[in-house]
Design brief:
alpha+beta, two-stranded antiparallel ribbon, 4 helices, flat
Length: 358
Amino acid sequence: MNTIATASSLGNFALVSFMLISFFGVMWLIKLKQSWATRQYFKQHRHKSIILAICFLFSLISVIFIAQRALFGDYPEQNSISFSENPDYQKTLTHPLKIYGLEFPIGTKVSLTEANNLNSVTEAHFKPAFTIANLPIEKINFFLNTDQKIDRILIQGQGVAHIFGWRCDLTQPIDINLNSDQKISQLETCSLASGNHIDGIHLPTGSTLLSSDGTTYADGKVAHDRWMIDVNTPFQLKNFHLTGGRIYFDATQKFIGLDRGFLTQPIQFGDFTYPQGTQVDKELLPNAQGQSYWWLNHEAEQPIRSKQGTVIQQQDSVIQDDTGKIQYIMRHDPNFNLETHLKKMDDAIGAEQAASSP
């Protein structure tokens, strides 16, 4: 029996029952208000009144519960047609067939968006695994553009997929593009498998890899980031022990930036000892002199003091180079304008370098 029809019938039953119960309930209240004899009867038989009211409320609650289950999806398959109940939308290939330029073998199970139309495949399952771009694939999801051509695909299987120098977990969906030769032309996103040691950084298993065309800033400048890694577990970056954050790499997989990592343990960096919880960032876009700096944002209420006596208050930021040398201290200001401060910092550093050059 079709679960959608079942849900619809239950919904209609619940609606009719609710209307009937509500009608009789309203009529009973009107009768009770207008009839002195009725009121007297219920005063003399209070226990019957209570039982009647309880039965009325219980019936009303039961009908509402049935309506909720029927109309809002408490039945597992009621909101979508199950392909197993609609064979026109699910096929098993009895002979090899070329779909979207891919030669699908006998036994491939395909799901369709249009009944009996093999040009509308959105999902394919392979058993045994089907090789695409030298990867053993068990499942493919196709995403088509307005011209009904493949825009991108999600692949899934077993083991590890080696793509563009990354180790991706093939048991999780991997978002890729294929070229006309059925080779991977673009890796959009994947979940990292174990063993990704990139530019001296051990990337935690399960981190999310995202491709990038370069981060664009408000002034039109574009950074050279090609890959972004969203990390949700503790990891080590240089001498910083961090959790969370987004790590940026260029096209050669060189580390170039960090956004919103947080210290999991104190660290001595330059003249300051930063406590656990300090936010750590690495500028993605180099300044006019081709340098990018570390930003350590002091989040704790307790101030910290440098060896020279400089005090950093809550939400102050210290800008330092790779050696820990302080370039600038940005005091917290609720009216702070980032672009203005960055320009001032670039100008100050440029003037300092110009003065020190022979």
